[in-house]
Amino acid sequence: MKPATLKQIAEQLNISISTVSKALKDYPDVSKKTKDLVNELAKDLNYKPNAFALNLRNKESKTIGLIIPEIVHHFFSSVIKGIISQAEEKGYLVIILQSNESYELEKKQIELLMNQRVDGILISLANGTADYAHLNEVLAQDKPLVMFDKIAKLVRCSKIVIDDRKAAYLATQHLIDTGCKRIAHFRGPLLPQNSIDRFLGYKKALEDNNIPYDPSLVYLCECGEHSFEEGKANAQKLLQDHNDVDGIFINTDLVAIGAINEFKKMGIKIPEDISIVGFSNWHMSSVISPSLTTIDQPGFLMGKNAFKQLHLEITNLKNNLPIVHQEIILQTDLLKRESTKDITAKKNKLHL
Amino acid sequence: MKPATLKQIAEQLNISISTVSKALKDYPDVSKKTKDLVNELAKDLNYKPNAFALNLRNKESKTIGLIIPEIVHHFFSSVIKGIISQAEEKGYLVIILQSNESYELEKKQIELLMNQRVDGILISLANGTADYAHLNEVLAQDKPLVMFDKIAKLVRCSKIVIDDRKAAYLATQHLIDTGCKRIAHFRGPLLPQNSIDRFLGYKKALEDNNIPYDPSLVYLCECGEHSFEEGKANAQKLLQDHNDVDGIFINTDLVAIGAINEFKKMGIKIPEDISIVGFSNWHMSSVISPSLTTIDQPGFLMGKNAFKQLHLEITNLKNNLPIVHQEIILQTDLLKRESTKDITAKKNKLHL
DNA sequence: GTTAGCACCTAAAACGTTTTCGTTTTTAAA
DNA sequence: TTTAAAAACGAAAACGTTTTAGGTGCTAAC
């Protein structure tokens, strides 16, 4: 049986719509008798408040929009899970769109969400996004916007990120600590802030350890659908160009795994000949052999925080409270596994 | 600048709201002059039709709901991607909820979506779902509902599935064809139809090849968060119970990978000592060593088809056309890789 | 100079709520 | 019995659209 409306209840009881509405919301100026009658009939007729009408009246939909570059991706799907779990707790629904790493699509989708009048927007930018007008437009219309992971520093809104630079620094430092002298880097695309930051972290670690930075040791990856193949290809190129490399810090796990597979095929031993550190801690990284040393990126937590911040801004906006933009930096972990040498273990053995 | 309303445009031009509405929709009974004025001002004032008002009037939101057991999962996230891509094409938005394999949550979420008045619902059932009242309620309210992958046969709605039984049969047959004589099965949970079907396919293949079915060779897996550990544990148990097993058909890839890793650790060679076939073709299955022979499950295609069918039913309902429930069975592929012996290759060599 | 026809425009209802403000009815006090 | 206060109810506007049905005012034809 389809939900009834206030009108239908009112007609059956010969009272006004207003009274029905008030009765259901337990207003004090409705008699106990009427309330009982209304509540009973409401149950019988399967009354459910019409969300469309409520949205129109309240000018809010308890719905937010989420734009993400790629859904089939361990990190991003973890973020989605974090967002949805938190949204559910606060009674919000999430509309998800996928930008496919395309700036054009991203722009369209922002418009779509604005026209849909969602209460707020969460976004992780496409790699191609270099112009931020569409994002500023959102803010100009007083619609809460929170960015996560792939952010634009210049846009004045809240951001949830990890410290990519620091994580990359630690990853590179770990290679150095385990004895690597000549360290290559497979970097991500040129635009997004986080692949820039990872590159900078790598470079800084070298400098701080008096290892000269050599641009020819840096290889570019799209880090898109063909990451695995890119890893293999770069591994081959690297060996042709430089036969003295003993460590690689790689922008993302799947590329690293491609490289490992290629090296294994060529008879190069990991980590004895070359040590490798990846980034993101994809599920498969712990499962392959040798397992991959990598940076754990807390996707679920990032999603949770992103929604929390957005929710805060939505409620503050509603209550005319000031909105303070936050930049939240989440902790990352270096997970030491088999693809790097465990020198500390050796050291400990010597001490025994 | 926030979007203006028809009213604001009407006031500024000193004409009625109706005329503004018609002008924007290019009705024939509005003069060219007025249309031009309206369109210009509409652009200037950033007019965007209010979605809330439209929903209320049209009794539709161009939004569908999707309930899925788990988002961080290669197969399911592929399905989501398929659904979203198709929805975008037809101008629909997708609200995603995650049931966490919980029947209780699933029930609540169905109610949420019904109250939200989505135009239709897509669902893949939680493992624990054995009661279908909540689903029948959706249908009773004339709301289009399409199930995919994890379905309930008894619910009268459209379904998009693969032929789990046939796929499992082919997987098992492949083990037999490559010389396995004693084949174990790591099966999925007891309730969902697809893990039952995979078990049945396994059993049937044995029978058709005159291999006696031995229940003690069937091991249970939750196939949840700890699939990898389950695979390892089951591998150990299997070796203790039966030292003569030479092939295993495993309900899902991650369990299979756990088993492979454990076997490798114990010095058992894959596929020489034991051949293994998984299910679902997780990304990592092609990347590990030995790569895993598995059944490719077309997630993206399934998502596309699920939305297409739902969309068909939504539009038919709107146009008072009859709704015909479909059961669409998608093709699967057996991907032969390193975890099973390639006997045909050997045969071919002999023929040379 | 009436009338038909046309071009253009508007009023108003409807979608389903909520809430303010006013009106009616009841109760209690004078 | 009158009056004041309290209790219970309802009318109406508002949110922003669309569309039907009904005007206007004009031109052209008789």
UniProtKB/TrEMBL annotation, chains A, B:
Judging by the UniProt lineage, the source's domain of life is: Bacteria
- Asked if the keyword Transcription regulation belongs to this entry, the reply reads yes
Query: Locate the HTH lacI-type domain: which residues?
Result: 4-58
Gene Ontology terms, MF aspect: DNA-binding transcription factor activity; transcription cis-regulatory region binding
Q: What is this protein called?
A: Transcriptional regulator, LacI family
Question: Which Pfam family, just one, is annotated for this protein?
Answer: LacI
UniProt keyword annotations, A-Z: DNA-binding, Transcription, Transcription regulation
